[in-house]
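Recap from last week: sequence in, structure out.
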Amino acid sequence: MVDNRTRSAHGQRVEEIVRAHQQVVASKAALQEAVTAARRQGHTWQEIGDALHMSRQAAFKRFGKPTQPKEPKPVEAQSVAPVLDITERAFDLVATADYDQLHRLMTPATSEALTADLIAATWSGVLAEVGQLESCDNTHVELPDGTPLDPDEEVLGSVVAATTLRCEAGELLGRIAFDADRKIIGVLIVPEDHGELPF
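Predicted structure tokens:
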């Protein structure tokens, strides 16, 4: 049986969570306002990135507000959250040879370049080395320059998702590049001890 003191302590903990979340939201809004004000005063993206310990591109993609050249419509930042699910789904589709569904997740140019035969041949090599895919773990999203992103962030332009492909007899690194509309523009499957990668 839960007494009133225990119930009261539980209620306080939930209230603390609500207050902490409100502080996070307010801090993000204050940071956006500070960056916008700095840009209005002529500070460069390099200066802002340096202040935030990130590249100028990472600062721009997180806080920039560009507008379309022919109409005063801002380019909208997109959530990175769907990329996590799409990444794991894409590797599941590769492993089950469902190339029609996989191609629907890609841009037309990527779908044309990554043919079913090419994907099948690549996956045959994976099967020969480490066996069947069992799970995708530690899936995360980053900017093309490697800056990590939180799942609740919204950013401009392309992002990259990475996941550990846990297979029967070993692990590989899976990486998927996404365009600004969160369509797949590149897929990599490499050993975990890889060298430099194209994305």
